[in-house]
Amino acid sequence: MNKALDQKTLAYFPIRIIDQVKTPCYLISEDVLHRNGRILSRVREQAGVKILLALKAFALPAVFPLLSRYLSGVCASGPIEARLGREEFGGQVHTYAPAYTPSQMARVLTYSDHVIFNSMGQWNRYKEQVNQKGKIKAGLRVNPGHAEVKVDLYNPCLPGSRFGVSAKDLEGADLSGITGLHFHALCEQGANVLVRVLESFEDRFKPYIQQMEWINLGGGHHITRSGYDIDLLCDTINRFRRQYHVDVYLEPGEAVVLDAGVFVTSVADIIHNDLDIAVLDCSAETHMPDVLAMPYRPHILGSGTPEEFAHTFRLGGISCLAGDIIGDYSFAAPLRTGERLVLTDMALYTFVKNTTFNGVELPAIYTFSGKDDSPRLVKSFGYDDYLGRIK
């Protein structure tokens, strides 16, 4: 049992609020978003850096007015997110994709301020269109040649990666029109890792950095995590800015919404098949796919590891996928039908990844702040949302 995590979560997510929501749902704390925003603002001011929200990790227009107080804009992964950023968030819109089709490119150029290309081939294909737009700044994603991501599924610098050009690819290339370089090589990591990645990036690309107006250091910076070395991050960025005379961007996703959301689910049934099994009204497969993909084990308030407490249950989802299993957890008392469970730190990579596989209903989304007597329903979903995707 993680008592410290439970206490921290309950300080921001009081039971009186949790008891009022309909399950399954995501519950987002505006107070935690403000807390994270203040930390990011400190970095922005101390390092002279511009910070963007990575929409691929979190996209909820209901809280964009709040986040826009602290951030310079968004980074998008294609025309849909670029339009969302332009119309709902405001500020700058930076768009990157491994490749753009002609129809996508036209829309990306409509909504973006910076457009980042993954290869010289893509840049050469679309540079005339970019130049015709006039004010759009074009960039190239590069492979910094170093990463310390432990899970290969999330490591963009593995051998054979499709992400980014190498320094060898740029030898003799015409970079006129390219104003910046972008790399992304971190995943939930500290400033010490950035130092090593940046050293590799500079070693490989220094002649090209010196030609640029801006450098984007990507996402994966765990800035709002307890114990993160903010001073090292700021010192590193300030040294880099002074040396190369460039604007620097960061595009965190998780750091913006770390600990800002919980997922509330209820026990739909209890069965026994060699072990006790609680079938929940949610699904790992459809509602929190990273649980199966990473794999990732979310913490549940009041729970422990298997056998830590007297009653161990396997928590299963409501879909027909045999592997729709959240994990094995123990509890001080046996779970009962109708009982609510609260999964912590579930704002990121959740509703942006939801599917309607099996016709499983999508969870509702609520927000609240500490001064509220009740949560605010942002969105609920039903049959029309399912049908709208296929008809």
Task: Walk me through the structure.
The longest helix is centred in the middle third of the chain and has 19 residues. Helix 5 packs parallel to helix 6 and helix 8 runs parallel beside helix 9. The mean pLDDT is 96. This protein has 391 residues and is an alpha/beta fold. It starts with a helix and ends with a helix. Helices cover 31% and strands 21% of the residues.
Keywords:
single chain, 391 residues, alpha/beta, eight-stranded mixed β-sheet, eight-stranded parallel β-barrel, 31% helix, 21% strand
Largest sheet: 8 strands, mixed
Portion in beta strands: 15-25%
Oligomer: single chain
List the total number of helices: 13
The shape, in one word, is globular
The count of strands amounts to 16
Category from helices, strands and their pairing? alpha/beta
Q: Helicity, in percent?
A: 25-40%
Radius of gyration: 22 Å
Intertermini distance:
46 Å
Unreliable spans are none
Task: Sketch the topology as an H/E string, one letter per element.
Answer: HHEHEHEHEHEHEEHEHEHEEHHEEEEEH
Write the layout of secondary structure elements.
Layout: H1 3-12, H2 15-18, E1 25-29, H3 30-47, E2 50-54, H4 64-67, E3 73-76, H5 79-89, E4 92-96, H6 102-111, E5 114-117, H7 120-133, E6 137-141, E7 178-182, H8 191-209, E8 214-216, H9 230-244, E9 247-250, H10 254-257, E10 261-272, E11 276-280, H11 284-287, H12 290-293, E12 311-316, E13 325-331, E14 340-343, E15 364-368, E16 376-379, H13 383-388
What's a quick, concise take on this entry?
The protein is an alpha/beta fold and 391 residues long. It is 31% helix and 21% strand.
